[in-house]
Write a structure and sequence with these properties.
Elements: E1 5-9, H1 10-20, H2 24-28, H3 32-37, H4 52-68, E2 72-76, H5 84-88, H6 101-117, E3 120-122, H7 129-140, E4 146-150, E5 163-168, H8 172-186, E6 199-202, H9 204-211, H10 218-225, H11 242-249, H12 252-260, H13 265-279, H14 286-291, H15 293-303, H16 324-334, H17 337-340
Parallel strand pairs: 1-2, 1-4, 2-3, 4-5
Antiparallel strand pairs: 5-6
Helix pairs in contact: 1-4, 1-6, 10-15, 11-12
Length: 343
């Protein structure tokens, strides 16, 4: 059996399953007090512990193991939003609301459940889940084919000849459309090579075709366009020019080298003319790029996944070796009756 390493963004998967398995009334309720009164409708065990996100995530994991037959697996979770990125930019992720209590509780319980079952679970107070995955994947990817499961586009920068991202789409139809769009060109057949539900497999070539940049340029793209989901500012009003500029200059640094090479206003006008005529950029982004220069570099830095997290596990430590007795006991405890026969 050939080896296969699946690295899972646990925070992304748990959050998706939490909202995907919420009672409709709760999902659409805006009033915080009324919301809290509806918490009792969320799936829970006989002790009153919430389980809707955990159940959905565990069902997904067991299905992935059954279909993908990975030999190695890991989970990474975010512990806090107050990581090193917030020290650099206090507004980072400031647009996100508080984690609802029923989800908060399940984060801790899910991490413990996975550890008890024998999986490697990584989290850290200073690094985010994507930094942990990036550190592990970059260390072992040349030894073992690696597949990252996430909804987060930041992870596309980790795509390489050895690592694929299985990017989870909101709907199965979207994943099917993308597979249809690229299937013929890349010789794909989901029956021959099943990938997880709602996922779309991103390769280096495909990243460029679908997102307009190479994987390594994802931080540069966010440096200019910003990222509303993480509250990364980027350069105001330049988003549509980002892809042609990066195609021409490669990086944020490269764009600013071209700007800095202009000795005077006349040269700047020439540069803007070149961008318009040769790169097809109609509205000149030059002024904004000069004005928000610091934001461009800061935004790129915030979007850059770190690969220097010091973990101690060897590749063998990530081998799947489920402790069945513990898993059964935990499934009983949380009321996951329908999952017991899937173990």
């Amino acid at each position: 059996m050939s080896n296969k390493f699946i690295l899972i963004d646990g925070s992304s998967m748990l959050v998706t399953n939490y909202y995907g398995n919420l009672p409709k009334a709760l999902l659409f309720e805006k009033d915080p007090e009324k919301k809290e009164k509806l918490f009792s409708q969320i799936m829970h065990n006989d002790k009153g512990q919430y389980t809707n996100a955990m159940y959905g995530m565990m069902r997904t994991i067991l299905k992935i193991i059954a279909e993908q037959k990975p030999t190695h697996m890991m989970f990474a979770f975010d512990m806090t939003r107050d990581t090193f990125r917030r020290e650099k930019y206090p507004e980072y992720k400031a647009n996100r609301g508080d984690t609802p209590q029923p989800l908060k509780e399940q984060f801790e319980n899910m991490e413990n459940l996975l550890k008890d079952m024998g999986f490697q679970v990584l989290c850290d107070n200073n690094y985010e889940a994507d930094d942990l995955v990036g550190s592990v994947a970059s260390k072992f990817e040349k030894e073992i084919p690696s597949f990252i499961i996430t909804k987060d586009h930041d992870y596309l920068q980790l795509v390489s000849d050895y690592t694929r991202v299985w990017l989870i789409q909101t709907k199965q139809e979207t994943a099917d459309e993308l597979a249809g769009k690229y299937g013929a060109e890349f010789g794909w057949n989901s029956k021959l090579c099943p990938i997880p539900d709602k996922a779309f497999e991103v390769t280096p070539k495909l990243c460029l075709s679908e997102y307009g940049v190479k994987p390594l340029q994802i931080p540069d793209l966010k440096g200019i366009q910003g990222d509303t989901s993480d509250n990364i500012p980027g350069v105001k009003g330049v988003s549509s020019a980002a892809i042609p500029l990066l195609a021409e200059y490669g990086t944020v640094e490269g764009i600013y080298e071209a700007i800095d090479a202009c000795p005077d206003e006349k040269a700047q006008k020439e540069l803007a003319k070149y961008w318009k005529e040769s790169l097809g950029i109609s509205r000149s982004p030059l002024k904004a790029l000069i004005q928000y220069r610091d934001m461009a570099f800061l935004s790129k830095d915030l979007a850059q996944i770190r690969k220097d997290f010091g973990f101690t596990q060897s590749l063998d430590d990530f081998k799947i070796n489920i402790n069945r007795d513990k898993a059964l006991a935990e499934f009983e405890k949380y009321g996951f009756k329908s999952l017991i026969d899937k173990l």
